[in-house]
Amino acid sequence: MRLLPALLALAAARTLARAESHWCYEIQAKASGHTCLGPAEWGGDCQKDHQSPVNIITTKALVDKDLGPFSFSGYDKKRKWTVKNNGHSVMMLLGDEARIAEGGLAAQYWAQQLHLHWSEQLDEGSEHSLDGHRSAMEMHIVHEKEKGTSRSEKANQDPKDEIAVLAFLVEEGPKNDGFQPLVEALSDITRPEMSTVMKKNISLLDLLPKEGKLRHYFRYLGSLTTPGCEEMVIWTVFKEPIQLHRDQILAFSEKLYYDSEQKLRMTANVRPLQRLGQRQVFKSQAPGRLLLPLPALLVPTLTYLMAGFLL
Ligand SMILES: *[C@@H]1O[C@H](CO)[C@@H](O)[C@H](O)[C@H]1NC(C)=O
Ligand SMILES: [Zn+2]
Questions:
Q1: The ligand 1 atom nearest the CA atom of 81
Q2: Which residue puts its alpha carbon closest to atom 14 of ligand 1?
Q3: How far apart are CA 117 and CA 89, in angstroms?
Q4: Are strands 233-244 and 55-56 parallel, antiparallel or unpaired?
Q5: I need a labelling partner for 82 at 20 to 30 A (CA). Which of 62, 189, 212, 302 fits?
Q6: Which candidate in 50, 88, 115, 128 is catalytic?
């Protein structure tokens, strides 16, 4: 009987398809008459309770003094990056060129890939929200922990921070020249599995807000926002948004398609908010606190100096 192994293989392939490739966003589930699995039906760890994204209530985030500035290395390397339509987003492959450390992380992390989430509605395109406010887009730079760089043994065995995602919110603003080579590449990758190489060299720093503005961020433990939603992500959500022109933002929805038949434009690739539950969100220390005592110090000093002068 040859049939049984064949049937088993088929069943296994089906299970895999259901678990992996047949997941989709809500907009696709609706358009397809629910032949793919929308967010409420995602498998893997997706229905557990330490999931992402979440709404961050900024006044409830606790200041953590260990959340200092990041050290970015290789983020300044200029490359003609490969970008790909993976059927869910546009993904930029980062090779082994860049890594991050510090920023309250217990290890070094290598950048693997970068991708974005967006919507045609400029207030519905981010996955995380701050005080209920959603941005036009959200960019995720996904990093993997480098083995053996953990500062403590305990952290090494703790899988909750195997992946570090840097999340940048995107808001409408002036034209962003740093982002333009990525925007221009979109026309070459309209359908899933298409990839191309950027026509101009850019660095990761070209895509980010100015490095001096990256000191303010939120931190919590959560998951990947796509199946299987593994709960092993240490999240950093930066307060300072990337600014893109409206046309640059809308290019993502206009150029890319979810499907090879180009029936459904790729938009609203955003997972719904998940419950924060018992988790605590932390924030880096506001530098404004250092400035506050200054006038208080200055006034007595001036009084003293003036008193000395008058005497
Ligand atoms: C531009 O990118 C290419 C391919 O990624 C790379 O080989 C080259 O060194 C880069 N040029 C500059 C000026 O950095
Ligand atoms: Zn993402």
A1: 5
A2: 78
A3: 7
A4: unpaired
A5: 212
A6: 88
What architecture (CATH level 2) is domain 49-310? Roll (3.10)
3-class secondary-structure state, position 290 = helix
Q: Which residues of the chain have pLDDT under 50?
A: 1-4, 7-8, 10-14, 16-20, 289-294, 296-297, 299-311
**Cα(52)–Cα(303) distance, rounded to whole angstroms?**
54
Q: Is the CB of 77 under 6 A from ligand 1?
A: no
Active site residue 133: no
Exposure class string for 61-95: b at 16+ Cβ within 10 A, else e: beeeeebeebebebbebebebbbbbbbbbbbbebe
State the pTM of this model.
Answer: 0.86
Interior angle at CA 205, CA 204 and CA 206, nearest 5: 90
Phi and psi torsions of 198, nearest 5°: -60, 150
Task: Point out the ligand 1 atom lying closest to the alpha carbon of residue 78.
Answer: 14
Q: What is the 3-state secondary structure of 9-49?
A: HHHHHHHHHHHHHCECCHHHHHHCCCCCECHHHCCCCCCCC
Tell me the one-letter amino acid at 160.
Answer: K
